[in-house]
Design a protein that fits this description.
With 594 residues, the chain is mostly helical. The protein has 27 helices and six strands.
């Protein structure tokens, strides 16, 4: 691709996505639907200018966004929490695949020459879009809700089911070439070996490498090693014939208890967002409008039947597993579309002549359009719920809670930036009073010191806006900035004040100039430690020569109120300010005596 063509294509994508996302967000339809529509506009089947005709290659590349998304989900999914979800994963998830696959397969038996091809189509359409559903849940803040956890459990089981489904394709083929060359037992052995590789690397090698890099302050190396771990895990699973996203999820889960979890999340998040946006654009580009228009009636029939069958099965199973009807409806709506892995399965089936070229085109169109319809269906359901709530306002719905809300999501906690001498002192006082807090530092020695005292101290740069988002800064009651490096403190305070204007910030300052700079950056209060040390020393000296404690306290308060100007030794101006401060303190003393 020539440079000028690349620049033109990039401009087309940016213009289309910017306009579409802005419009769809404005009308409350969400950014995902806007990205899908933008993909249709810039795709090769739109009838106008298009970005590229190699849509499949673009989609393969942008699937890296799904890999990063599952890695970030894994970071929030500790093994203990996953164990609590085993009933939903292996019960609800497995039943959904089998029942939905059988129902859809029975329907497609009316259009396919053999029951084997119909069964494969049914099992493939039983899968849902991990990328779409998780992105929708994250945008709506429902990823930790009860129905969000159930949806994620089903998606996880679907990812696990990809192994036998891929093995099923060559078995159903008349050629049988892949079946003969790669026996099923060998595929499972390969999967087991790759899982062992991921476990060893993620449990032992990766934490050691990250520790060494943080000791040396190598942030670039830190990020690159994290990306290496993610894509190594993805490649391992891909080599074994499994979903790349599943490998990334396992790697993230291995890091879920690490001290570096939030900083890793902050480093990966912006790249995930970019690639996920491009993924949905690529899905939109895959919709061949002309080919679908030739079979418009059959195409619409397939979409409606598949969505209806999956909705009915999911609704019934969710209610059978104890979910209330509103939650069951939400789960069914979230998972009623086709999944992106269907592109791979149907492509493999077409290559081995299990399905025809016409069936492949219809199948890809059904998957893509069903993904477009999901945000619309959810929006319609939300509107209906709002109308019903207005008609019946007397009874509020019960709040939805997660199965295991991480400690990082606690409301009203204090954030401590830096865990050196001052940060440790502040943390000790907070811990003594039972006040929840979490501290961040980039020095492994400081982190180890805090953990020795059972304090929540994690690796992280509080000047990183992505880390601020990951730590849920909007829920903090206070930020205490104890960093002794003024530029770092200024950068962190500036980001916090810009994005979270209601969160109060108190900060340590090295001197009076730093104090003024911190105030300008947005600190609520700043205390220059050199001046404070001088004040405490002078105050104790006055008390020891029998000056009344109340007089000393008022004198010190007057100095602080005058921004410590009386302590600045810069000639006559400072002496004059000092005299004014002393006079103010004397007047305060006289008033209190009266």
């Amino acid at each position: 691709m020539h440079l000028d063509h690349f620049i033109t294509s990039a401009l087309m994508v940016l213009i289309a996505t910017s306009i579409a996302v802005a419009l769809f967000k404005h009308f409350g339809l969400g950014s995902i639907l806007g990205l899908l529509v933008a993909g249709i506009v810039v795709g090769p089947y739109s009838g106008g200018p298009y970005v590229t005709s190699h849509v499949e290659e673009v989609r393969h590349f942008t699937e890296l966004g799904v890999v990063l998304l599952l890695f970030l989900i894994g970071l929030e999914m500790k093994p203990s929490r996953l164990w609590t979800m085993r009933r939903e994963v292996f019960g609800l998830g497995l039943l959904q695949i089998l029942v939905s696959g059988a129902a859809i397969g029975a329907y497609f038996y009316l259009f396919q020459p053999s029951w084997t091809s119909a069964l494969l189509i049914g099992m493939t359409f039983a899968l849902s879009s991990t990328a779409l559903v998780l992105q929708l849940l994250q945008e709506s803040g429902e990823i930790n809700s009860r129905h969000g956890t159930a949806a994620f459990s089903i998606l996880l089981m679907q990812d696990l089911a990809i192994v036998p489904l891929l093995a099923l394709v060559p078995i159903l083929s008349d050629t049988g070439q892949l079946s003969a060359s790669v026996p099923l037992w060998q595929q499972f052995a390969t999967v087991a070996g790759m899982l062992a590789l991921i476990a060893i690397f993620g449990r032992y090698m990766l934490p050691y490498a990250l520790h060494q890099l943080t000791v040396r302050g190598n942030k670039e190396g830190f990020f690159l090693v994290v990306m290496l771990a993610v894509f190594l895990a993805a490649w391992s699973m891909h080599y074994a014939g499994v979903s790349m996203a599943l490998g990334a999820f396992i790697m993230g889960m291995l890091l879920s208890s690490s001290d570096y979890r939030l900083q890793v999340q902050a480093s990966v998040e912006p790249y995930k967002g970019l690639l996920m946006s491009l993924f949905f654009v690529a899905v939109g580009m895959s919709i061949d409008l002309a080919a679908l228009a030739d079979q418009a009636g059959l195409f619409m029939q397939h979409i409606l039947v598949i969505i209806a069958l999956k909705f009915i099965v999911l609704l019934g199973l969710a209610m059978a597993f104890g979910y209330a009807r509103p939650l069951a409806v939400r789960i069914a709506l979230l998972l009623s579309q086709g999944g992106e892995f269907g592109f791979v399965l149907f492509g493999s089936a077409k290559a081995l002549q299990v399905i025809s070229d016409e069936t492949f085109v219809l199948a890809v169109g059904v998957i893509s359009v069903s993904m477009v319809l999901t945000p619309l269906a959810l929006r319609a359901a939300d509107s209906i719920s709002e109308m019903m709530a207005k008609k019946n306002p007397a009874r509020d719905p019960a709040p939805q809670t997660a199965l295991d809300i991480p400690e990082e999501n606690a409301q009203g906690r204090v954030i401590i930036g830096g865990f050196g001498r001052v940060g440790y002192t502040v943390a000790t006082l907070l811990q003594a009073r039972g006040i929840p807090f979490i501290a961040f530092d980039t020095n492994p020695t400081h982190i180890a010191k805090g953990q020795e005292h059972n304090m929540p101290v994690l690796y992280g740069d509080v000047g990183d806006p992505h880390l601020l988002h990951a730590m849920h800064m909007e829920q903090a009651s206070l930020v205490v900035m104890t960093i002794d490096h003024t530029p770092s403190a200024l950068r962190a305070i500036s980001h916090i004040r810009s994005d979270y204007p209601d969160v109060p910030i108190i900060s340590r300052a090295r001197d009076l100039k730093s104090c003024h700079d911190l105030y300008k950056a947005g600190a609520t209060h700043a205390f220059p430690e050199a001046m404070e040390s001088s004040l405490h020393l002078g105050g104790e000296a006055l008390k020891m020569i029998n000056v009344e404690e109340s007089v000393v306290d008022q004198l010190l308060d007057a100095v602080r109120h005058a921004d410590y100007q009386s302590l600045v030794t810069d000639g006559s101006a400072s002496r004059q300010q000092g005299a004014q401060t002393e006079s103010e303190a004397r007047r305060h003393t006289e008033k209190s005596t009266v």
